[in-house]
């Protein structure tokens, strides 16, 4: 059914986030960049985040297992959702990473096939499908 792809390359899919920093923290970051420790602010922030994720990796792994989350990428094609409907099944999508629903999936098919969506990361789907599933997305 749905294609599940483990996360092997962190840089292939990215999402933009915004953070607020005080002027002292920002100045220290700029100083480290200026001194050549990092190529730019983003490099330092990514490195810091990866270090923290590494420290907490066992807790993340335990939670993924306990909550039965798919780790990485899970893609749902129109055929996947049609097959779920034909089998009289409703999908509970739970992903840590990226969940994507094919752009040719209609809002009606998504509503018929998907019971709930929990994504810790990013959900890619057409605006119409996202709007139709809004009350099912946690």
TrEMBL record:
Q: Which InterPro entries match?
A: Arc_rbn_hlx_hlx, RHH_8, Ribbon_hlx_hlx
Offer one Pfam family short name for this entry.
RHH_8
Question: Which Gene Ontology BP terms does the record give?
Answer: regulation of DNA-templated transcription
The family database entries (Gene3D superfamilies) matched by this protein are listed as: Met repressor-like
Alphabetical list of PANTHER family matching this protein: BLL4998 PROTEIN
Recorded protein name is CopG family transcriptional regulator
Which organism is this protein's natural source?
Answer: Caballeronia temeraria
Q: Tell me the organism's taxonomic lineage.
A: Bacteria, Pseudomonadati, Pseudomonadota, Betaproteobacteria, Burkholderiales
């Amino acid at each position: 059914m749905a294609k599940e792809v483990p996360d092997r390359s962190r840089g292939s899919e990215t999402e933009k986030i915004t953070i607020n920093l005080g002027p002292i923290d920002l100045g220290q970051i700029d100083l480290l960049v200026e001194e050549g420790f990092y190529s730019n602010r983003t490099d330092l922030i990514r490195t810091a985040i990866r270090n923290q994720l590494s420290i907490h990796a066992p807790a993340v792994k335990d939670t993924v297992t306990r909550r039965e989350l798919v780790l990485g990428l899970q893609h749902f094609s129109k055929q996947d959702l049609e097959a779920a409907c034909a089998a009289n099944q409703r999908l509970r999508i739970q992903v840590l990473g990226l969940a994507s629903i094919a752009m040719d999936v209609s809002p009606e098919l998504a509503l018929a096939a998907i019971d709930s969506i929990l994504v810790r990361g990013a959900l890619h789907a057409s605006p119409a499908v996202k709007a139709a599933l809004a009350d099912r997305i946690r």
